[in-house]
């Protein structure tokens, strides 16, 4: 069994810059051996869902803008950089980049957290379409959608770290 320190070190970044999720999952004793992507995801997701709305909002706010200033400055986490590059967001035309920048600003203004989508398997056009559709959502609906996307991102990250399990 991993120590608390080792567990948090290994899985503390699965929910973007939010190691408290891994700490709480470990402390709850909800992480069964052997460690599999599905088991660790279930434990982390339970801790995320048990967090206060304000804490979950903090997790949402910890995510970078898509194709935003952190990407340009090369300051994304390694996971975020790979995810955005895999969707082609590191190869936008100037016009596409301007549209993402415009949508990012409008989205954050409306919801007070960045647009979040699990980009694996999507391309820039898919992401832009989802962005344009979701910006019309109400605040509660979009909060729920964004938290679901965060959980999906966590599962994808865990699947790259651990065996799937049964």
TrEMBL record:
GO annotation (BP), single: allantoin metabolic process
Pfam family, one: OHCU_decarbox
GO MF, any single term: 2-oxo-4-hydroxy-4-carboxy-5-ureidoimidazoline decarboxylase activity
Pathway membership, UniProt: Purine metabolism; urate degradation; (S)-allantoin from urate: step 3/3
Keyword terms of this UniProt record: Decarboxylase, Lyase, Purine metabolism
Domain Oxo-4-hydroxy-4-carboxy-5-ureidoimidazoline decarboxylase, chain residue ranges per copy: 2-159
Catalytic activity: 5-hydroxy-2-oxo-4-ureido-2,5-dihydro-1H-imidazole-5-carboxylate + H(+) = (S)-allantoin + CO2
Superkingdom of the organism of origin: Bacteria
EC code: 4.1.1.97
Protein name: 2-oxo-4-hydroxy-4-carboxy-5-ureidoimidazoline decarboxylase
């Amino acid at each position: 069994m991993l120590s608390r320190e080792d567990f948090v070190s290994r899985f503390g970044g699965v929910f973007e810059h939010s190691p408290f999720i891994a700490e709480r999952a470990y402390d709850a004793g909800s992480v069964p051996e052997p460690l599999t992507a599905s088991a660790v995801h279930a434990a982390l997701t339970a801790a995320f869902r048990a967090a206060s709305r304000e804490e979950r909002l903090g997790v949402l706010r910890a995510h970078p803008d898509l194709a935003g200033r952190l990407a340009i400055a090369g300051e994304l986490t390694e996971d975020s950089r790979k995810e955005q590059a895999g969707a082609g967001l590191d190869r936008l035309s100037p016009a596409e980049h301007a549209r993402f920048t415009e949508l990012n600003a409008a989205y954050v203004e409306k919801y007070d957290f960045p647009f979040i989508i699990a980009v694996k398997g999507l391309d820039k056009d898919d992401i832009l379409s989802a962005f344009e559709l979701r910006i019309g959502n109400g605040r509660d609906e979009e909060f729920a959608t964004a938290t679901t996307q965060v959980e999906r991102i966590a599962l994808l990250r865990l699947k790259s770290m651990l065996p799937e399990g049964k």
